[in-house]
Amino acid sequence: MPQLPNRNEIDPKYRWDLSHIFPSEEAWEAAFQAVNQRVAEFAALNGHVADDPRRAIRLYFEIQDELMPVADYAFLSREGDNGDPKAQALFERVMGLMVAAGSAASFLEPELLALDESVLREIQADPAMADYDEYIRTLLRQKPHTLSKAEERLLASLGEVTGAPDNIYSMLTTVDLHFEDMELPDGTRQPLTDGTWDAFRESPDREIRRQSFEKIMGGYGAFGTTISGTYSASVKYDCAVAAARHFADALAARMEPLEIPREVYTNLIDVMHESLPILQDYLRLRKQLLGVDELHMYDLYCPLVPDFTMELPYEKAFDLVLEGLKPMGEDYLAKLREARDGGWIDVFPAQGKSSGAFSSGDLRHVHPYVLLNHTDTLDSAFTIAHELGHSMHSFFSNSAQPLPKADYSLFVAEVASTCNEAVMLRHLLKAFPEPKAQAYLLNHFLEQFRTTCFRQTMFAEFELIAHEMAANGEPLTRETLSEAYYKLNQTYYGDSCVVDEWIANEWMRIPHFYRSFYVYVYATGLCAAVSLSDRILTEGEDAVRDYRKFLSAGCSVPPIDALKLAGIDMSSPEPLRKAMEVFRETLEAFKKAVAQC
Ligand SMILES: [Zn+2]
Asked: Is 540 left (phi over 0), alpha (psi -120 to 50) or beta?
């Protein structure tokens, strides 16, 4: 592989401009010292929030507002070049400051919750505190689930122990767990890791796919008893805390504080079940296109349209994004151009730069920043649309809302990004009519449905089963967990695919399970985005106007209501069914396209 360039060898117009946050390191230093002082000022309120709760709340948010630029400047400097000792030093100092700010603030909510409910309601209704009314409202919702001071202190003091299952799992899987080397047809051996597996499981050589699958699953299986122990402890902790905090069960403890109706979770599972015939139809087509007599679990990832590539240098890719996102409105496009030309984006890979891509949207007084690692592929073009979707969501929410209401909920975090991708994809399908391009693009979309809607919902269902087993006093062992997971695979893949025995170990390699009831948002997010993109493309201006209300809502209303502003109700199964209808249409179009290839 050619050596990556040094960061300063890259044309500045392809680098983000952090001088928009602070013009110099001296300016950063001054801001750092100022926040430091404010944190000390806040720490002195410990035990005294009741004296002047309004002042404590204001001060808390003011510190957040001042801390964000100081933190992001250091964070982004390091992301741009992890090897730069200066950036490293800034980052370490900021981490120290964040810890100090976090511990200084840890008394605020418990002391507010200890106030009489009438005091909180008074603050909530006070016009001078209107910016904080949602904050107080969500705090009040916690009140029935808050324990006595002594109980809360005890729980907090156990933090390190209660986080142990996740920590132990993570040490085991990132440090101690190794996989057998891959033995390649030319006689060479190559190391196999979770990271290198992607390339092996997509290999056109079926033997390589099978071998890598068995070695990965076998590697986890070798520690299966230990991983069952860590996961069982994590699930039982969820159940115990849910009961202690007077929730009906662990799922309620996760959903209710975020104001997400339980039906969102159960509808998702139900609609994916009713749509399994479409998934299985797709898998039967996959089997036919791969020309195998049996489709195995290790055949699911290799590309179906392998010899199609699109050469998309950054400028061309960005033009394609602008062209594709035209339906989002002219002012939306103007912001995208501003992002491109205004130093928001760090485009190319460089030595020491972090891999992957992200949008960082907390800088209310500056603009979002985007990290890319552009490689001239179609995937990279989709990444531009995706990350700028996050940026636009942050930008419009930050512009329309005061700080306490600007930060959008995790439940909708992937909606704006995936909606951009879906709108752009529909444009590309029109722009590239040749059958091979059609097949490639449609397959890209189908794979998104398979891996994001169905696979993540299967994970969500597994979590629900594990927590129900624990609540019913059933043992959570390697055997019971793997059996439950294997059965789910049989349900989802049915007779369209051979459900290999090794797949029973797959749940062991999913780190998200240690943050329970979270993965479903990937599936609901994609379904919401597909439904929204459909509305935008068919209804035009009205839909775009409603969509902008959603982008601008931040957390000023609960996330379900924010999506209702855009015209979709995620507490009903309708948007999920709409997305599955698009999945079915996409499959039909794909069948036609491959027939012409
Ligand atoms: Zn994203």
From this structure: left
Which of 387, 461, 463, 506 is flagged as catalytic? 387
User: Which residue type, as a one-letter code, is found at position 453?
Assistant: C
CB neighbours of 264 closer than 8 A, spacing ≥ 6? 255, 520, 524, 560, 570, 571
**H/E stretch holding 508:** none
Q: What global pTM score does this model have?
A: 0.90
CA Rg, the chain, in Å?
25
- Give the DSSP per-residue string, 212-266: HHHHHHHHHHTTHHHHHHHHHHHHHHHHHHHHHTT-SSHHHHHHGGGT--HHHHH
**Judging by beta carbons within 10 Å of its beta carbon (0-12, 13-18, 19+), is residue 549 exposed, middle or buried?**
middle
Contact of 369 with 392, CB cutoff 8 Å = no
Q: How far is the CA of 580 from the centre of ligand 1 (A)?
A: 21
User: Ligand 1 centre and the CA of 418: distance in Å?
Assistant: 7
**Residues 484/503, Cβ–Cβ less than 8 Å:** no
For the stretch 470-514, pLDDT in tens is 999 999 999 999 999 999 999 999 889 999 999 999 999 999 999
Rounded to 5°, angle at Cα 400 from 398 and 402: 65
Q: Rounded to the nearest 10 degrees, what angle do helices 149-157 and 224-244 cross at?
A: 170
Annotation marks residue 387 as catalytic: yes
- Please say if the pLDDT value at position 535 is more than 70: yes
Distance CA 113, CA 396 (A): 32
- Estimate the share of the chain in helix, then strand, then coil, as percent rounded to the nearest 5: 70, 0, 25
Across 299-350, where does the E strand assignment appear?
345-346
Q: Token pair for residue 323?
A: 């062209």
Write the single-letter amino acid at 286: R
Distance of CA 342 to the CA centre of its chain: 26
For the segment 553-591, what is each residue's pLDDT rounded down to a tens digit? 999 999 999 999 999 999 999 999 999 999 999 999 999
* 411 Cα: distance to centroid of ligand 1 (angstroms): 12
How many CB atoms are closer than 10 A to CB 435? 15
- The answer to whether residues 250 and 517 touch, using CB atoms and an 8 Å cutoff, is yes
Which stretch of DSSP H or E encloses residue 136? Answer: helix 133-142
C-alpha 358 – ligand 1 centre gap (Å): 7
Q: Which of 466, 474, 469 is nearest to 516 (CA)?
A: 466
